[in-house]
């Protein structure tokens, strides 16, 4: 009798878990969206713009002007947030020295200083999801470190969004760690990101992904389009660190657009459409804008997953421009061009994705796939700590998103009957007891039986 009751309880528990993982909606995520404040973001953008210039090589001694004043203020904001959450953030400077020699955009030797705030996870403290904004700004001439360069949208918007995400998410506890960081030296050569990526590698951080926010406040494009719902997610197709063997195998088994950064982009797309369906996330299959770069790239260079989140419609008259008016056109990155409600939306996009990833178990390891010339697809993978089950995803080979899925329970192998392997791409995600999922893992091994 007791055995039957135990089986019944186990069955209903499984059904509840399956329902939770299928529904993928959590009230906490909606609460996070509501907690993001456009007013606080506006206040922080104004404060950053009021430092006059935040050029990486500008004044470091003044308390009211230059990069030094800006980074000290950012650090004090993180420390204030930490105080409010019972010192839940570890706040510190991470810095590297750059020299004029060999760097054509460096006017003089200087320290490139990042401001880092770490919110440690309760279960996986060495697994990190990172949100970054850039501290620095620039005038028309990147070597000019004295002219006013308020950088309201580029990139006080991303920095303010990062601070606001810290305010909101610090009210919660997560299984994985979250890092909020202001990076410097972006305009001169991505120095801050390169320094932190190297630091992360030396410290042995297990990075889930990097969400680089660079310009999240403009809705009026130079193309004449006004759009307060669409935003871009840039991601490279495969890591630059892949081996020659991995490159050769892709010719036969696929995966040309299924690297770790692309999977992170798909995760963000899915989470956003689930919780903020009014938004239009636009995945761009490119490392960054045409011929240009962003602070996620140094992480990509070392094999870490990283993407860039930014506005869909840029206005080039407001980027990297001295403040002036010519032929009726007002140039300059000033605060009146920033849409704070839009910056709030993109900050919320970041916050809910970081919360979801920080609450999820690690992704499955050693995902293998089989089923060549068979009417079914077979999978094997290594289980991971914290997962109560796994979910198989698949899509047509031309689809940008994972369109079909099946929860298969707490198993390490499964056969998906009635589906021909040739016609789809497949992946596996871990599912936690709380229903949150890891990033999908594209198979990295082939087996025959």
Task: Give an overview in words.
This protein is α/β, with parallel strands linked by helices and 449 residues long. The protein folds into 2 domains: 36-359, Aminopeptidase (3-Layer(aba) Sandwich), CATH 3.40.630.10; 365-446, Immunoglobulin-like (Sandwich). The protein is 33% helix and 25% strand. The strands form 4 sheets. Strands 1-2-4-3-5-8-6-7 form an 8-stranded mixed β-sheet, with helices on both faces. A 4-stranded mixed β-sheet has the order 15-12-11-17, with no helix packed on it. A 3-stranded antiparallel β-sheet has the order 14-13-16, with helices on one face. α2 packs antiparallel against α11 (340-359) and α5 crosses α11.
Keywords:
Aminopeptidase; 17 strands; protease; 449 residues; 11 helices; disordered N terminus; secreted; four-stranded mixed β-sheet; eight-stranded mixed β-sheet; Immunoglobulin-like; metalloprotease; M28 family peptidase; single chain; alpha/beta
Number of domains: 2
Strand coverage percent: 25-35%
Helicity, as a percent range:
25-40%
Mean pLDDT across residues: 94
Strand order of the largest sheet: 1-2-4-3-5-8-6-7
Distance between the termini: 41 Å
Poorly predicted regions are: 1-23
Supply Rg: 23 Å
What is CATH's topology name of the largest domain? Aminopeptidase
Structural category: alpha/beta
The outline comes out as globular
What's the CATH H-level superfamily name of the largest domain?
Zn peptidases
Q: Number of helical runs? A: 11
CATH class of the largest domain: Alpha Beta
**Largest sheet, if any?**
8 strands, mixed
- What order do the helices and strands follow? HHHHEEEHEHHEEHHEHEEEHEEEEEEE
Domain Peptidase M28: 114-353
Organism: Gelatiniphilus marinus
Pfam families: Peptidase_M28
Keywords: Hydrolase, Metalloprotease, Protease, Secreted, Signal
